Each structure stands twice: as C-alpha cells, then as structure tokens.
UniProtKB/TrEMBL annotation:
PANTHER family: PERIPLASMIC BINDING COMPONENT OF ABC TRANSPORTER, PERIPLASMIC OLIGOPEPTIDE-BINDING PROTEIN-RELATED. Its main location: other. Gene3D superfamilies: Dipeptide-binding Protein, Domain 1 (3.90.76.10), Dipeptide-binding Protein, Domain 3 (3.10.105.10), Periplasmic binding protein-like II (3.40.190.10). InterPro entries: Peptide/Ni-bd, SBP_5, SBP_5_dom. The lineage of its organism: Bacteria, Bacillati, Cyanobacteriota, Cyanophyceae, Oscillatoriophycideae. It comes from Gloeocapsopsis crepidinum LEGE 06123. It is found in: Cell envelope. This is Peptide ABC transporter substrate-binding protein. Keywords: Signal, Transport. Belongs to the bacterial solute-binding protein 5 family. Residues 94-459 form the Solute-binding protein family domain.
Length: 553
C-alpha cells in the first residue's frame, strides 16, 4: 500500500498525558438489517466484567467501506468482518481459499483467472452470496474510485460471473501475484443489497459482508461486532469483539495495565513495549513479539544533484549503521534490513550487507572521494520525514549525528520535519533529496515491495522517471533493466524461476541504490492472563476469531 496514504503511517508516538481510566460505556445499537448493524445490546467495555474480548488500540478507522479504506486501522477491523476469495494460513504466509473453493485456473497466457466460489454463504443482511455478488463487490471496488481502487483497476480488464458459482477475471497484463492480491482486505464480498456502484458512493460507518462477525456499532471511540450466527465457516472462539479506541499510546498503556482491555495492540512507543515486556512474568501478562512485514527505507531522489550520481548513493549506503539504529531508536524492537524485500520471503537476499556492510566508513569515504567530496567540499544531504513520526525523527537525528562524528565532516546531514500532508504531497514533486519512508504491504508477495517503488512507465536513464511508481514515491529512478526484470517476474508462473528474478532485482538495487533498506519492524501484542489463543500473524495481524476468553487461573 502506498505510503502516500494514511495507512502508510507507522504509529504516531504519543507523549504521556497522565493516567486516564476508562469508564464503562453503555451501548444501545439500533436494529437495521439493511445496514448490518443488528440487534439491540447493552454491554460494558470493561474487560473484567464482559464475556466479550475488549481490544485496545490507538488506530482510529476513517471508514469501514472496503472500496475506500486504505489504512491499517480500517483493515484490522475489516479482516474480522469480512471474507475474501483467498486468505492466508495463519503463521505460514501460504495462500488458501476462503470464499473461493480452490486456487484459480489460469489460462496459458496468464490473463484469465477462473475461480469457483462457495455455496451456502449468507451476507450479514441475509442476502445469498454467489459469483454475481462477488463480481459486484470487485467491480464496485474498481468503479467507485476509492483510495485503493488502482490496486485492481491497474491490472484488471473485466470481472464477471461465468456461472452461478464461477467467477472469471480477465487481466490487462499477466500478473503472477494476482491470487495474493485477491486476499487484500478491501477485496472482500459485500452485499449487493446494501451497497451501490458509483463514483464516491461509500458507506463509511456500515459494513455488510459475510465474515464471522457482524458490525453492531461504529463510533469514534468504540467499534462493536457480534458473532454472525449464520456464518458458513467455523464459529469464533469468543462471544464478540469490542474495539476500544484510545487517544494516545499512554492511555493504551495504562488501560492494559489496569485491566480495562483484554488485548493491547497498536500502538506503543518503544519504552512502553519494554516496560510491558519486563513486567509480563510478574503480572501474568502475555507478551507476544513477532516478525513484522513492515519495513522502513531511506529513499533517494536520483534526479537531484548530487544523488543523480550512483557513486554518491552507494557511499550513503556504505555509511548506514543499521545495528546502531535498531539499538538507539528502536531499542531492539526492529531488526536490520538488508534488502527492500523483507526476510519473511524466501527470495530475500541480504545484498546490502554483503555489498556495503554496516557503518563502513572507509568505503563511504573512498566512494565520496571518487565523487569529488572531501572535508573541504563536503556532501550536503537533507533527510525529510513527517513531523508526527517520532521514530523517523530519531532515525534522521541518528544519521545526522553519525555522519558528523564518524565521517570527519565529509558528509553534512540536515534533517527536515514536514507537516504530514505537506510531506506526502511534496514527495512526487521531487522537492526532497532524501526521505524516510515506512511501508505496509497490500498483499503477501515480494512484488509488493518492488513494483510500487521501482517501476517506471515513462522516463529515461538521463531524465529519470517522469511517470510511474518510482516518480510518485519520490525516487525518480529509471532503469530499463529493472523494468524488464519487474515485468518478467510479474508474468512468470513458475515459482522457482520467479524467485531467481527477484534475486537479480535485489542485486540491481544494491548496485543502483535507488533506496536504502534500514529496518524491519517487530510486531507486539499484549494479552491479559484470561486470554487464550493470542497470536500475531505478519499478514493477518490479530486473528481475533481464534482467541477465546477464559477465567483467571
């Protein structure tokens, strides 16, 4: 998912604003079968007094309309409310059918996907699911023009029901990762009786899908979902979910410590994570630490002098000290990343480690000297980041301090904090020399870490990228060879051959250095003693339907 949208914001790090205890909230929700906000309920969000799971988070969804949501906050909710054609086997990253009954049949040219869909499925409003309903959902995603619409519109030519329980999708160009894309949370089935197709026709406060839960309340501070009794699959292990949305990481921290929430997930600052981990054994808490598929890069503008010289970009790559960054900024709550593809993929190659190492001062100085930079003529580099991100501010400051202390004045780094909207509006304009960027992927395929950064539809080696992903992300990197490799891996159906293409792509990145991978984050969730089956998945995040709530042992 593009970092130009708010889902691409890694957590905003709040300051402690004092102890804030949550009050019990009486919830009365109206019965509206057309909107999927079912039966009237009176409950409390106090974790200790409810048989329901209370999940505390600071992520506030803008919308729950799958055709317009492009933020992590909404996706975390929709994953529990919806079904897609495909999902992932928890803990494996392997694709498996959900509303489909089998993996697609793909034509020899890689353009036509024929997918059998499940029978006996109902939407939350009682409407029967079939291939026509799935086609409606995907066409609505494309035609309503929401934030994520281009994910499908860029690759899909047509979607139609070719039988009552058979879907046929025709692509514009072959795309080997297409089944993985179909597992994206926004590509879920929604009821044709509850939604419309038409530009801008969104329902941000409603959700009528086929998932194991149905939405019963959506307010700024509380989202409630009940178990959907007519669900076609295995019923959830709990009696419902209350998402308690808190105003800051400090409030989330205190709410968990005082037992007001059963599970605390996204987001804490590093000090809070460390504190909860240290107290877990004595307090009987569950503290889960898992690898995340979220990465942070330093993007370099290959169109601006002197970064238009690949030798200068290589010198910057050599000076980066990832272990220092993970220790000083992340308190070891991230790990060094040596490729734009994270190490959760088999195709991962630590090319920046083998080519440059970490904090390779001698190599950096030699490359800078080759490019004409010395203490008398230092390289001036400005690194920009969104002002709301304390983490990226600290990364930029660490790089600035490191350059000053270790490189003897050959590199002079300045940092530039920009208001968030301004920062993301300016990236594609080529205003910044270098930018710190966080990346949450849309789907579980290595292509989603490469194509959105490095592909270019119009440009040249001399002019740089003038139109395409690389331009829109502020890299302005153009390479005929990279474009060829990206196209080849997107068309290649053989997994082993495709993996070798990704190896070549990573080697070319290490040579050209359009961006420098910095860290791969870790994901944390904390649960009370009564929570059973808590786990964190790199792709599905919190599979809440598997979590039960028992009694304190």
């Amino acid at each position: 998912m593009n970092w130009l949208v708010s889902r691409r914001r890694l957590w905003s790090l709040g300051k402690f604003i004092g102890l804030s205890l949550l009050c019990c909230i009486l919830v009365v929700s109206c019965n509206n079968p057309q909107s999927g906000t079912g039966s009237s309920t009176v409950s409390t969000t106090s974790a200790g007094n409810s048989a329901r799971l209370v999940v505390g988070t600071t992520l506030r969804p803008r919308t729950l309309d799958p055709a317009d949501n492009y933020e992590l906050a909404g996706s975390n909710i929709m994953t529990s409310l919806s079904d897609r054609l495909y999902t992932y086997a928890i803990g494996t990253g392997e694709l498996e059918p959900q509303l489909a009954t089998a993996l697609p049949q793909v034509s020899a040219d890689g353009l036509t996907y024929t997918i059998p869909v499940r029978q006996g499925v109902l939407f939350h409003d009682g409407t029967a699911f079939n291939a026509e309903a799935m086609a409606f959902s995907l066409n609505r995603f494309i035609q309503n023009g929401g934030k994520p619409a281009s994910l499908l519109s860029d690759v899909v030519d047509s979607v139609q029901a070719s039988g009552e329980y058979e879907l046929t999708i025709r692509l514009k160009n072959a795309f080997a990762a297409f089944p993985s894309l179909l597992a994206f949370s926004g590509l879920c089935a929604v009821s044709p009786q509850a939604y419309e197709i038409g530009t801008g026709k969104f329902k941000p406060r409603e959700f009528v899908g086929t998932g194991p839960y149905r939405l019963v309340q959506f307010t700024p501070n509380l989202i409630r979902m009940d178990v959907f009794n007519e669900y076609w699959g295995e019923k959830p292990a709990n009696q419902g979910i209350d998402f308690q949305i808190l105003s800051s990481s400090a409030n989330l921290f205190n709410s968990f410590r005082t037992g007001q929430v059963d599970i605390a997930y996204q987001t804490f600052d590093p000090e809070q994570v460390q504190s909860l981990k240290q107290q877990a054994e004595s307090q009987g808490w569950q503290a889960l630490e898992e690898q995340s598929n979220v990465v942070t890069h330093l993007g370099l503008n290959a169109k601006q002098q002197p970064l238009d010289n690949p030798v200068v970009r290589q010198a910057i790559a050599a000076m980066i000290d990832r272990p220092l960054i993970t220790k000083r900024v992340y308190q070891e709550q991230a790990e060094p990343l040596y490729s734009m593809i994270p190490n959760t993929f088999d195709s991962y190659q630590p090319v920046f480690q083998s080519t440059y190492g970490d904090g390779n001062v001698d190599q950096a100085k030699a490359l800078l000297a080759q490019a004409g930079f010395t203490r008398e003529n230092p390289l001036s580099l400005e690194i920009a980041y969104p002002a709301y991100s304390l983490t990226r501010e600290q990364v930029a400051s660490t790089l600035q301090e490191y350059g000053s202390q270790r490189l003897d004045g050959v590199v002079q780094i300045q940092t530039k904090a920009e208001e968030g909207a301004t920062f993301f509006a300016n990236i594609s304009k080529g205003i910044y020399q270098a930018v710190l960027l966080d990346w949450y992927p849309d789907f579980g395929d290595a292509d989603n870490y490469i194509h959105p950064f490095l592909s270019c539809t119009e440009g040249s080696a001399t002019a740089g990228c003038e139109q395409g992903a690389s331009q829109s992300q502020g890299l302005f990197y153009y390479s005929d060879r990279m474009n060829q490799l990206i196209d080849q891996q997107r068309q290649e159906q053989n997994p082993q051959t495709r993996e070798q293409l990704f190896v070549q792509i990573q080697e070319l990145i290490a040579q050209d250095v359009p961006a420098i991978p910095l860290v791969q984050n870790k994901d944390y969730a904390f649960g009370q003693q009564t929570v059973q089956g808590l786990q964190v998945d790199p792709i599905l995040k919190l599979p809440l339907w598997n979590i039960a709530k028992g009694t304190k042992g």
